[in-house]
Design brief:
single chain, 80 residues, mainly alpha
């Protein structure tokens, strides 16, 4: 019984360490990346770097509710 508890405790420690490392080293792209993902563009249509270059002044700004901005009164999904 004691051996089974030690194995489960070791598994929990390993999983917690992996989770902590993922949180510590994970990248946060911010609101610009969230706007890119919600635009439903694929990498073939427009890369994230191109998106950030084109829309950095509108969709990549921080607002009260996250990404903000429109292009000529249209949302990004409607402009294509």
């Amino acid at each position: 019984m004691n051996e089974v508890v030690r194995k489960w405790a070791a598994l929990v420690v390993i999983l917690a360490t992996m989770l902590a490392a993922g949180v510590a080293f994970g990248e946060d792209y911010g609101p610009c990346y969230e706007a890119y993902r919600s635009s439903m563009l694929t990498e073939q249509q427009m890369s994230f770097e191109e998106f950030r270059t084109l829309y950095s002044d509108t969709f990549c700004t921080r607002g009260g509710d996250g990404p903000v901005g429109t292009i000529e009164g249209q949302a990004l999904g409607e402009s294509r």
